[in-house]
């Protein structure tokens, strides 16, 4: 049929009115995969080059601190005969003979200390102690701080008032003074306790290390508690809390399932930033001779021991000093990166 | 205002009392009395010494005597340095530490504030990134590392500066710089972020629109507002320099209160430990209260609770 040039009638194609095929239907769906909180955060974190480099450094340090010592030919307390005060990569006379005889001798990458102990393994063990202190202390602080803060915020009223006054008092107590005092005073009672049946593990971990944990647990949770409280005060007005309550959820369940999970960003960031500050304090204590007990090394005590020989063996000081600075720096920068990624509101 | 000040002071008193109480009971947890390490001492002599210092009385009685004496500024006699009262030792040693700490605080403020302002003013440039790297490192490196590095480079290798004691002006340089490193970095960061905050405010644009010179708007308007957060940091900074001096004094063998405190701990000199702790804690707490009150006074935007 010919089309009249003056006609307004549309010329329709009957094919356009066929039912859509499955493929065509798929193409019309504009929904994307939902981006979860974690995915979103990690995507932002991956873009942050500084934070990724720091994460990489932390992983490397952790491998050296926790895995490598198991395969290392020397032990941290083993004193090698005649190998005192070796410079990095130097061999003792005896070891030279062994090499001449065709034996293989594992090199002392960082030399040895004045008692003939391989310094590389001591630095690794020292990093292990420092990292353990940082991570465990941060975990303790996370638990105590978030429980205390959320209860105070959720209960409100005079409970909140009293709990926050306690926080205020602990907050104004000069922490380092009390830490020095506590770690000194707790040592002996813990030693007595270690003799009691069932508490033998105390001497395995070391009294000093446990007293450091107790100190952190007693004093350092207040910052976390304040942070969590302020978040929860805001969150508890949300509708989903009312909804959960209407459905009959208990307060404990609301705190656990709804409130704490919603301030997880703050929790992650504060905990990560707590790790370097705990490591910092531990190294300070060890440096003053109040940290971990000999022969167990910590980065602080290694540096402290090396001061007397600073003139002749400066590398004994520089290696642990560099490692501890690197660890603290990496955790700090990673914490900043995590804050930008997971908790953008917190920035400045 | 008056209510706020009263509340702060009351809280400070409670805190000082808490510190004194904790210190007292902690000291009593430690076994091995102060006279154990003395050579060849008969049980009778120990008894006599304990009676002299009141260590034979029940704990509750000792506690109340101690608290009431401490409230009068009497911390008793040192158990190790015979014939000297704790207050006497503190009076001779504290000025050394205070001088060092005070110089470090002034240095930190004089260096940290201008550099922070400069970094904010030149944000995004090379100078800004350079300063931010320096500040980040300054915060991450522990005090003893900075001390020993300075000691090694300037004392041992170059031999420019004396390594021990405080004999002349040059010998102050290293300890003060080492002590000031952390607070300087912190103030730099604080100053930069607060300056950036202020520079973005409307009144800065108004100042510019009025035709004020860069210098006037920066120093008269921006700096005044941006420096407020630094004031809040003065309290913690004093606490840091007072306790940081433990390490500095140990490394540079300076006869200050920090070294005395560590010595007292190792020698189990109960009265000295308690006295020093309460004394230092009181200074820190009082300084914090003063700083808080000053902060509220100078910043009218803060509502007084």
UniProtKB/TrEMBL annotation, chain A:
<dbReference type="InterPro" id="IPR050366">
    <property type="entry name" value="BP-dependent_transpt_permease"/>
</dbReference>
<keyword id="KW-1003">Cell membrane</keyword>
<keyword id="KW-0812">Transmembrane</keyword>
<dbReference type="GO" id="GO:0055085">
    <property type="term" value="P:transmembrane transport"/>
</dbReference>
<feature type="transmembrane region" description="Helical">
    <location>
        <begin position="129"/>
        <end position="154"/>
    </location>
</feature>
<feature type="domain" description="ABC transmembrane type-1">
    <location>
        <begin position="127"/>
        <end position="335"/>
    </location>
</feature>
<dbReference type="GO" id="GO:0015031">
    <property type="term" value="P:protein transport"/>
</dbReference>
<dbReference type="InterPro" id="IPR025966">
    <property type="entry name" value="OppC_N"/>
</dbReference>
<feature type="transmembrane region" description="Helical">
    <location>
        <begin position="198"/>
        <end position="222"/>
    </location>
</feature>
<dbReference type="InterPro" id="IPR035906">
    <property type="entry name" value="MetI-like_sf"/>
</dbReference>
<feature type="transmembrane region" description="Helical">
    <location>
        <begin position="50"/>
        <end position="72"/>
    </location>
</feature>
<feature type="transmembrane region" description="Helical">
    <location>
        <begin position="259"/>
        <end position="277"/>
    </location>
</feature>
<keyword id="KW-1133">Transmembrane helix</keyword>
<comment type="similarity">
    <text>Belongs to the binding-protein-dependent transport system permease family. OppBC subfamily.</text>
</comment>
<keyword id="KW-0472">Membrane</keyword>
<dbReference type="InterPro" id="IPR000515">
    <property type="entry name" value="MetI-like"/>
</dbReference>
<dbReference type="GO" id="GO:0005886">
    <property type="term" value="C:plasma membrane"/>
</dbReference>
<dbReference type="GO" id="GO:0015833">
    <property type="term" value="P:peptide transport"/>
</dbReference>
<protein>
    <submittedName>
        <fullName>ABC transporter permease</fullName>
    </submittedName>
</protein>
<keyword id="KW-0653">Protein transport</keyword>
<feature type="transmembrane region" description="Helical">
    <location>
        <begin position="315"/>
        <end position="334"/>
    </location>
</feature>
<dbReference type="Pfam" id="PF00528">
    <property type="entry name" value="BPD_transp_1"/>
</dbReference>
<keyword id="KW-0571">Peptide transport</keyword>
<feature type="transmembrane region" description="Helical">
    <location>
        <begin position="166"/>
        <end position="186"/>
    </location>
</feature>
<dbReference type="Pfam" id="PF12911">
    <property type="entry name" value="OppC_N"/>
</dbReference>
<keyword id="KW-0813">Transport</keyword>
